[in-house]
Design brief:
Blueprint lengths: L4 E6 L3 H14 L3 E6 L1 H10 L7 E7 L7 H10 L7 E6 L3 H9 L4 E4 L5 H14 L7 E3 L26 E3 L3
Parallel strand pairs: 1-2, 1-3, 3-4, 4-5, 6-7
């Protein structure tokens, strides 16, 4: 029996949130969808977190305000450890909003008026595929050589910790 995936839909407009919930349920029978507002989501972050979810759908309004509260919200959420992949369903978004949101690390961006069943299904699949639990990540232990091979090894190269996707370097 396949494991049920949990998806959290965050929407302040309950009608839009419920619409999205019903669309996801129609597309995927292996997912359990929960609906929350941004206030409820903030409370969830303070109490239980979001690590139990495989995907987070956020319905955000990108109306032309100078401070862009939607982008500020995304920055805050993406900075939280164990945040599942985020798919944005954008109200009043444009190409600039999409690029700004993608630069903040979201998995996908869909304009709400163009969210067809095919695009929504692809976004769900992409987001769920991007989710990997920390227990599934493989760890590589890199140890320095015991003795310098040459004098050039006295200043070894600094290797970025995220050099290899899906692996975490513990020591360089």
């Amino acid at each position: 029996m396949p494991r049920t995936k949990r998806i959290l839909v965050v929407a302040d407009d309950t009608q839009v949130g419920r619409w999205l919930q019903l669309r996801i349920e129609a597309l995927r029978n292996d997912c359990r969808i929960e609906l929350d507002t941004t206030t409820g989501f903030d409370h969830r972050l303070a109490t239980s977190g979001t690590a139990q979810f495989g995907l987070l759908f956020a319905v955000l309004d990108f109306a032309g305000t100078p401070d862009q509260p939607a982008l500020t919200w995304l920055e805050r959420v993406m900075g939280i450890p164990d945040t599942p992949p985020v798919v944005v369903l954008a109200e009043h978004g444009d190409e600039l909003a999409a690029v700004s949101a993608m630069r903040r690390g979201i998995a996908d961006y869909l304009p709400r008026k163009q969210a067809s069943a095919e695009l929504l299904a692809a976004a769900i699949e992409h987001g769920l595929a991007a989710h990997r639990a920390p227990a599934e990540q493989e760890v590589i232990q890199v140890t320095p050589p015991r003795a310098p091979i040459s004098t050039s090894m006295q200043n070894p190269l600094k290797v970025p910790r995220d050099l290899i996707p899906r692996y975490l370097l513990l020591d360089t």
